[in-house]
Specification:
The protein is α/β, with parallel strands linked by helices. It is built from 13 helices and 13 strands. It folds into 3 domains: 14-75, Winged helix-like DNA-binding domain superfamily/Winged helix DNA-binding domain (Arc Repressor Mutant, subunit A); 81-195 and 369-384, Nucleotidyltransferase, domain 5 (2-Layer Sandwich), CATH 3.30.420.40; 206-362, 2-Layer Sandwich (Nucleotidyltransferase, domain 5), CATH 3.30.420.40. Helices cover 42% and strands 20% of the residues. The strands form 3 sheets. It has a 5-stranded mixed β-sheet. Strands 11-10-9-12-13 form a 5-stranded mixed β-sheet, with helices on both faces. It has a 3-stranded antiparallel β-sheet with strand order 1-3-2. Helix 6 crosses helix 13 (368-384) and helix 10 crosses helix 11. 42% of the residues are buried.
Length: 392
């Protein structure tokens, strides 16, 4: 009987997750529309909606569909909204959260390599407005926008610090057009830094004051948290481990130096090693085939993990974190990446250390830079809010 009860509980939780995920993806819907999208019965949808409204996770409002009255279901919002935007070489990711850290909307827009800043920022503004409309929200609810750039960001002007890493974005003031469009503060940072922030607030590192986030995507970056805050360094370049030299005679990197770690573990390098046996591939193909058991793909990812782990060990000797969190597309290969990374890390650290540094994989390895931007916007708005006088 306990087994049956457990099965019913698991089914109910799966139905709840299905319903919430559908609203995250498609925005506010009527109960009938929710039943169609989720495949659940209208009775089940009605029951779940009532439960989630009671829990404060959903809100309902009257609406009209085809001339008939209906109940519109949307995610509950608390106080205001933080918007996170992640600009990567080939995609734009949007995440919107409220003050309860509930995710109101998530969207990803593919972009051509070498996309222009002005066009991409216009698309970002359209995407934000569409997401707000789908969620039944308004732009005046936004308390801030956090933008994650897939490039080093300078501390003094919050623009890209090293040309060539995100082509076409050098010298671009990202904050100004977004701030003017939405009349709200805009915060700019490197994507690994904001991913580390997300992990410390609602990810794998909640409760940890000192951590290193390793972003293994098309190249490598690190976000460092010390005392609960991101460590930027004087110029903003702290954590740029992808530009640490590992081969003095190696290839020229996008930063202009020779033999950087990124020249060995960037997407084009990794897939090129399999071009004879596997043909044209992308990083997603490499990870998918590794997860399916392909020995060549698993070897390529494992070798990359060893290289990255060795460099990460040097960083950890310098900052001595409590925890390392792995994120990015290569991290989605699970133990194929994390096991050799962990072995290389521990081999290069102090052999007589009291305890080895714990390594975890992010629960949200692909989109946490945008999430970090949204969470930062919320937190900054709270910090800057005036303190109400105490009643006498």
């Amino acid at each position: 009987m306990a087994r049956l009860f457990g099965s019913q509980t698991s089914l109910r939780e799966a139905n709840r997750a299905n319903l919430l995920a559908s609203i995250h993806k498609f925005g506010a819907m009527t109960q009938v529309e929710l039943a169609e999208v989720t495949g659940l019965s209208t009775a089940t949808v009605s029951t779940l909606v009532h439960q989630l409204v009671d829990e404060g996770r959903l809100e309902t409002a009257g609406t009209t569909r085809n001339g008939r009255r209906a109940t519109l279901v949307k995610l509950a919002r608390h106080q205001g909204l933080g918007v996170g935007i992640w600009v990567a070489p080939r995609q734009l990711t949007l995440t919107i959260v409220d003050f309860s850290k509930s995710i109101i909307a998530e969207h990803m827009l593919p972009l051509p390599y070498g996309h222009k800043a002005d066009v991409t920022l216009e698309r970002a503004m359209v995407l934000v407005n569409e997401a707000l409309g789908n969620a039944g929200a308004d732009a005046n609810e936004i308390v801030g926008i956090g933008v994650a750039l897939a490039a080093p960001v300078a501390s003094h002007d919050h623009m890209i610090a090293i040309p060539g890493i995100l082509p076409g974005w050098e010298g671009v003031d990202v904050a100004a057009p977004l701030g003017a469009a939405f009349n709200t503060p805009v915060y700019i940072d490197n994507d690994a830094n904001l991913a580390a922030f997300a992990e410390s607030r609602m990810g794998a590192a909640v409760g940890k004051r000192s951590l290193v986030y390793i972003q293994v995507d098309d190249g490598v970056g690190a976000g460092i948290m010390i005392g609960g805050e991101v460590l930027h360094g004087v110029t903003g370049l702290a954590g740029e481990i992808g530009h640490i030299q590992v081969d003095p005679l190696g290839s020229i990197c996008t930063c202009g130096n020779r033999g950087c770690l990124n020249t060995l573990v960037a997407e084009n390098r990794l897939v090129q090693l399999l071009s004879v046996t596997h043909g044209n591939m992308t990083l997603d193909d490499l990870v998918d085939q590794a997860n399916a058991g392909d020995p060549g793909c698993r070897r390529i990812i494992g070798d990359a993990a060893l290289r990255i782990g060795q460099v990460a060990a040097d960083l950890c000797i310098s900052v001595d974190p409590e925890l390392i969190v792995l994120g990015g597309r290569l991290a989605m290969s699970g133990e194929v990446f994390s096991q050799p990374f962990r072995e290389a890390l521990q081999r290069m650290l102090f052999p007589d250390a009291v305890a080895p540094i714990e390594v975890r994989t992010s629960p949200n390895p692909q989109d946490n830079s945008a999430l970090g931007g949204a969470l930062l916007a919320i937190e900054r708005s709270v910090r800057s809010a005036p303190i109400s006088p105490v009643s006498q």
